[in-house]
Amino acid sequence: MAASYRLVAMACFLALLVCTTNGQLSMKFYARTCPNVEQIVLSVMTEAVRKEPRMGASILRLVFHDCFVQGCDGSILLDNAPGLASEKDSVSNKNTARGFEVIDAIKAQVERACNATVSCADILALAARDSVSLLGGPKWPVPLGRRDSTTANQTEADNLPSPFENITSLISKFAAKGLNAQELTVLSGSHTVGSSICFAFRTRVWGTEPNINPPFAIECRKNCPASGGDNNLSPLTTPNTNRFGNQYFKNLMIGRGLLHSDQELFKGGAGGPTDRFVRFYATNGGAFARDFAAAMVRMGNLGPKTGNQGEIRLNCRRVN
C-alpha cells in the first residue's frame, strides 16, 4: 500500500513540473530582482508565530481561501472599494479570516527592499509555507511569479467549502478545482493546527450525529453552549500542541473531529470514500508531511495570473 501512495505523490510532482512550466511560475523568478524576498517573509513570519502560534494556522487558511476563489491571485487581501465587494465580507470569511496585518507587515518590508516587484499573491504563498514549517511541519519549494488580481469575487467566496458540508459536496468542490479525494483528505490535515468558532461546530456537539465520540461532545459543550458564545474558540485538534502533525487523522478515527466536515472524511464502520486515506495518514506521519507538501504546491498552481495579467499591488489591500 505504501508503495502505491509513493507513486501517487510522485505523479503529483511530475504533473506539477508541467503545470509550473506552463503557468510561467519559476523557483528563480525573483533571483535578480528581489533575491532576499524569502528571507524577508520568513523573518516576519517567525516573529508573528512566536508571538501567537495560532497565526500560523490563520495564514495557512488565508491561502486556501485565496486559491479557491479566482485562483491564487491575492484577491482575498483586497478591502471593500467602489465597485469591489471584498471577499473578506463573504459568509466564509467574515469575522473569521485573519492575519491580514501580518501580510501587510511583510509587504511593507518587501517594498522597501524591492519596490513594485513582488506580488501579494506570492507573499501569501511563501507566508503559508513558512507558517507550516515554523509549526513543525514540512517545507516545500514555492514556484513564484504570480501577479495580483484587480478584482474580487465575494459570491464565489460565499461558496467555499464549509464546516457543515458532507463528503459528497466536499469531493465535488475539490474536484472542481482539479484536486482529488486524496488531496482533499491530506489538505484537510491543515486542521491539525488552529481553532474554530463555536458557531461552526455547535450543531455537531449538541445534535444527534452518530459519528461523534460522546465524551468528546460533552467536552466541547463546555466552551460552546447550546446558545450564545458563537465566537468562543476551541482547538480543531486535541490535544492542542500548536504543532503540525498527524494527530488530526488519529482523532477522526475515534470520532473526535471537531467540525462536521472533518468527521465526514472518516465514516468508520459505515465506510466512506476517504476512509483509507485517513487510516494511512493516521499511521504514517511522514507520508502525511510529504503528501501535504506536494498538495500545497499543486494547489498553489490553481489559476495564477502571470505575464501581463493583473498587477503588482503596492498595497495588498487595494488595487493600484
TrEMBL record:
Active site: 65
Binding residues for Ca(2+) 2: 192
Record's cofactor remark: Binds 2 calcium ions per subunit.
Residues that coordinate or bind substrate: 161
Listed Pfam families: peroxidase
Tagged with keyword Metal-binding: yes
First-tier enzyme category under EC: oxidoreductase
Residues marked Transition state stabilizer (site): 61
Gene Ontology annotations for the cellular component aspect, listed alphabetically: extracellular region
Coiled-coil regions listed in the entry: none
Residues bound to Ca(2+) 1: 66, 69, 71, 73, 75, 87
Known cofactor(s): Ca(2+); heme b
Signal sequence, start to end: 1-23
Keywords: Calcium, Disulfide bond, Glycoprotein, Heme, Hydrogen peroxide, Iron, Metal-binding, Oxidoreductase, Peroxidase, Secreted, Signal
Binding residues annotated for heme b, in chain numbering: 191
Any one GO molecular function term: lactoperoxidase activity
Any one Gene Ontology BP term: response to oxidative stress
Glycoprotein in keyword set: yes
EC number: 1.11.1.7
Residue span(s) of domain Plant heme peroxidase family profile: 24-320
Subcellular location: Secreted
Function: Removal of H(2)O(2), oxidation of toxic reductants, biosynthesis and degradation of lignin, suberization, auxin catabolism, response to environmental stresses such as wounding, pathogen attack and oxidative stress.
Protein name as catalogued: Peroxidase
